[in-house]
Design a protein that fits this description.
921 residues, alpha/beta, eight-stranded mixed sheet, seven-stranded mixed sheet, 33 helices
Length: 921
């Protein structure tokens, strides 16, 4: 691909020299040398960032997906090697670490590059080490010697610090990395990059902020309606007046669909003719791929926000006879897959559905999601990158960092399940997904296609595609492990100060500035209102305060009377019996009714009687239907055979009710309310008002209106002051509460870390405190290796099932006793957290205990997966998380202890089969 500076044989020496000067302008010797490693010219933003690094600054680079941000990270690697220092290249996910490791090994050789993830430890003392961000965080707290000579830390996908589960790790690293180390932060496009850069400058020193919103490959947006593709936007106007607007054809079709839906709804309601079919049905997935193939828009990634949906899409393509590869390509695909799975036993491959997997690959089709075996996912990534796979059906996890660009991205729906509810895609998520479209150096343009469907509105798609506001917001908060490690390293006071340097506090302080400014404006307005309320007869604000006290006291008396009436009504409802005839005093259920069931103890807010009204309606009433006490006006007998569900029974009993009480009786006597005049405080306040000098002022009500404005604004200002106070030092206050919990439990003592605290400092887990407490209380001392694996799994596993699912199966005997003790211990810790106004510890999840137990016992893979109904990818990930925590438990346990030996034995027993297959090629 030619560039503006590309040289031709016809160029004169002067032209060639001029092009050379343009390419090397401002470049230092290291950058000039680095450019020779690439067969293309660097973009302006890449050169600017590299120059800043060579000049001694740290950098923040915010640019679109696929724009080449990693070139800047690779230049940091180059600088470290040429300067005799080290560079750590951190990523948020292991798959991206593995990919980057392979890239750097190809360039620099295996002796200069290392890899450290939870799964792999390869050449960890090399000058270049690729690692997950958590590994670096753990090194910093442990004071690892590997940090010696560290010159650069590259933080790829640094926008992960917004992740509410793991984001704090990025801020911990940025704050705690030695001052001599330069940070290279690589981020997707965010709208507050300057704010993030200011924070980096504050905590890390000189940091250049480079923002580039230009996509190297232009992106075109479309909607697929049936078998026809429409541009999402069309250009209007000319020259400077030219602008893109939503395609009016799509708008008309959307209006037509709404009109058709209303007609159909009317037909269904009226029970007349059958509803007219939808005019624009979503096309079948194989048809979408065929349509893209005809238009030359493959390879494509179709995002389906469901693992089962991805697998189903592959099967649909197979059943439809889709074939996107030649015979030669199919043979090459088979050979590559066989080579990559050579270490996996034939039996395990059979269990994992390898035959169907390869059959789809040979046709150029594949799924990609977290439920797949990691090796299978890597095969898909490798073949897709080589252009062998033409259609991938993926969940949104593929968009998070993996270098796997396509010509086209297809999005089926605009909402997804987030684990709790179906939520709409955000503009940032839409941009992240469509950022995969367009391969630099291969495609002239990229394409994003949204499939028309019942809940896909062109206006919503246009809004997602045109929004450019994706703020990066911190999710940082102190944890127990963080607290003991920080206090142990720098002391409690310094730790508190360090946490106040977090991006979370930086953002909170910025918000406080705006609130404080509003408080100042309100205070100026209050002074003006007070001046406007002045009276020549005396202090009107004093008089107004008396009026307000009187109004508040009268309102308080009214609330007390209302509360007393409600309490009296609740007591009266408790005495009702079946057959009592009552008068419901107000509301849409007012009138006579007979009590079928008093409903005492049914609800926490009071009795809820079930009644039959004179209109034969059965209703469950509540305390809200009775503003005052109710008394039976009559009694009737309810037949033993009466059923509220039987229409004839209801009709007969309602008839008996009408005959027994032919007219609505008068409401029962009302309780006597205490008149406000009888209240001593109210009487004194009224007397004080009459005696006040300004009471007789002829402009009293004019003054009162200004005073009322004063008091209203004063209330608003006080609320703002409380918000300012709540946001100031919020991180430090949370840290103080965390330390209070740790002091109470003996992990800290007088601001010093105890021996138990040092044990807690070696446990990096969401349930770190519960893990440490289980160790300290000896809950696992009597367990063998498989039983320990079962119990520890409850501290890492989080079930995807709802809370209403049946209780999971667990091993009997020692395991059940230990798990029950762990849940009781969690309850005690939860109470301690509530007392200290923090909440970090979720309840242990027993959903993987039986599976972990069986795998540690040596059971076969097919039996384990079949009984727990897990995918291979979920199983491998869960076991690897368990192995990670077992390793931490072994490290935290006393030397030569039973627990340490048992944990090591459990790890050895579980690291087999599909779990043991290395993900590093």
């Amino acid at each position: 691909m030619t560039t503006p500076d590309a040289l031709s044989a016809e160029d004169s020496p002067a032209q060639r020299y001029s092009a050379y000067r343009r390419r090397t302008a401002g470049s230092g010797p290291a950058l000039l040398d680095f450019k020779t490693l690439y067969d293309f010219d660097l973009d302006a933003f890449q050169i600017e960032a590299c120059q800043a690094l060579e000049d001694g600054s740290g950098v923040l680079v915010a640019a679109p997906t696929g724009s080449g941000k990693t070139v800047v990270g690779e230049f940091a690697v180059h600088l470290a090697l040429t300067g005799g220092g080290k560079c750590f290249y951190t990523t948020p996910i292991k798959a991206l670490s593995n990919q980057k490791y392979a890239d750097l090994v190809r360039r620099y050789g295996p002796e200069k590059v290392g890899l450290l993830t939870g799964d792999n430890s390869v050449n960890g003392e090399a000058p270049i080490v690729v690692m997950t961000t958590e590994v670096l965080r753990n090194m910093l707290y442990a004071g690892s010697q590997t940090l010696t000579g560290l010159a650069f830390v590259v933080m790829d996908e640094v926008h992960y610090l917004a992740d509410r589960f793991r984001g704090a790790v990025w801020e911990e690293v940025i704050i705690h990395v030695p001052d001599s180390v330069r940070i290279v932060a690589l981020s997707a496009t965010v709208s507050n990059a300057e704010e993030f850069g200011e924070w980096l400058h504050e905590v890390r020193g000189d940091t250049a902020v480079i923002v580039d919103e230009h996509r190297p490959v232009p992106l075109f947006q479309h909607m697929l309606v049936g078998s026809r593709m429409y541009d999402l936007f069309v250009d209007t106007g000319k020259g400077r007046d030219r602008q893109a607007r939503l395609n009016p054809q799509l708008t008309r079709m959307a209006v037509d669909e709404v009109r058709r839906a209303k007609v159909n709804q009317g037909r269904r309601t009226g029970h007349r003719r059958a509803a007219r079919p939808e005019r624009y049905r979503p096309p079948a997935r194989p048809d979408v791929i065929e349509r893209l193939d005809r238009a030359g828009l493959l390879p494509a990634i179709t995002f389906i926000f469901s693992r089962a949906g991805c697998d189903a899409a592959v099967l649909q393509c197979l059943h439809a006879g889709t074939r996107l590869t030649s015979k030669e390509e199919a043979e090459e695909i088979r050979a590559h897959a066989d080579l990559r799975t050579a270490d996996i036993s034939r039996e395990d491959l059979r269990i994992l559905g390898y035959t169907d997997f390869v059959s789809a690959l040979e046709r150029g089709v594949a799924a990609h999601h977290a439920g797949m075996l990691p090796t299978f996912k890597e095969i898909v990534e490798e073949l897709f990158t080589r252009g062998m796979i033409k259609a991938v059906f993926a969940t949104e996890t593929l968009a998070l960092g993996i270098n796997m660009p396509a010509r086209t991205v297809v999005i089926e729906k605009l909402d997804k399940w987030n684990g709790e509810a179906h939520v709409a895609l955000t503009p940032g998520e839409y941009t992240q997904l469509t950022g995969r479209a367009g391969r630099r150096g291969i495609d002239v343009e990229g394409h994003a296609v949204v499939v028309w469907g019942p809940k896909v509105d062109p206006g919503s798609v246009g809004g997602l595609a045109s929004t450019r506001t994706y703020p990066l917001n911190s999710s940082f908060q102190p944890s127990y492990n963080m607290a003991v490690n920080l206090v142990g390293a720098v002391g409690a006071d310094r730790a508190r100060t360090l946490l106040e340097e977090s991006f979370a506090q930086f953002q909170a302080d910025r918000a406080v500035v705006g609130l404080a400014r509003q408080v100042h404006k309100n205070e100026e307005a209050l002074a003006g209102y007070a001046e406007a309320a002045e009276c020549h007869l005396g202090d009107f604000m004093e008089y107004a305060a008396l009026r307000r006290r009187l109004s508040d006291r009268e309102a308080e008396m009214s609330r007390e009377r209302s509360s007393a009436r409600r309490a009296e009504a609740a007591r009266s409802l408790e005495h009702l019996r079946p057959g009592d005839v009552i008068l419901v005093p107000s509301g849409r259920r007012s009138g006579l009714a007979v009590v079928l069931d008093p409903g005492v103890g049914r609800r926490s807010d009071g009795p809820a009687p079930l009644v039959l009204t004179v209109s034969r309606s059965v209703q469950r009433l509540s305390i809200l239907d009775f503003p005052r006490a109710v008394e039976p006006v009559e009694r009737i007998r309810i037949p033993k055979s009466f059923s509220p569900r039987n229409p004839q029974d209801r009709r007969d009993l309602a008839s008996t009710l009408r005959n027994k009480v032919p007219h609505d009786p008068k409401e029962g006597r009302r309780g006597r309310d205490v008149p406000a005049a009888d209240d001593r405080e109210i009487a004194d306040l009224r007397d004080g008002l009459r005696r006040h000098p300004v009471h007789g002022c002829d402009k009293r009500e004019d003054h009162a209106r200004w005073a009322e404005r004063y008091f209203r604004l004063e209330r608003e200002t006080e609320q703002l002051r409380r918000r300012v106070e709540g946001r100031s030092q919020v991180i430090a206050r949370t840290f103080d509460r965390v330390c209070a919990v740790l002091e109470q439990l003996g992990y800290l003592s007088g601001g010093e870390v105890t021996a138990e605290g040092r044990r807690l400092g070696r446990i990096y887990n969401e349930l770190d405190l519960l893990t440490a407490e289980s160790l300290r209380d000896g809950l696992w001392e009597r367990l063998d290796h498989a039983e320990l694996a079962a119990c520890v799994s409850a501290l890492v596993y989080e079930s995807r099932q709802s809370d209403e699912a049946a209780p999971p199966r667990t091993p009997t005997g020692n395991v059940q006793d230990a798990l029950a003790a762990m849940v009781r211990l969690w309850g005690e810790l939860d109470a301690v957290e509530r007392d200290n106004r923090v909440s970090f510890l979720r309840e242990p999840d027993l959903g993987f205990a039986w599976t972990a137990y069986r795998w540690a016992k040596g059971d076969d893979l097919d039996e384990v997966l079949l009984e727990n109904d897990m995918t291979a990818g979920d199983f491998v990930r869960a076991v690897k998380q368990l192995l990670d925590l077992l390793g931490q438990v072994a490290d935290a346990a006393p030397p030569n202890s039973h627990i340490r030996k048992t944990a090591r034995r459990a790890m050895d027993a579980m690291r087999r089969g599909v779990v043991a297959y290395s993900s590093v090629a």
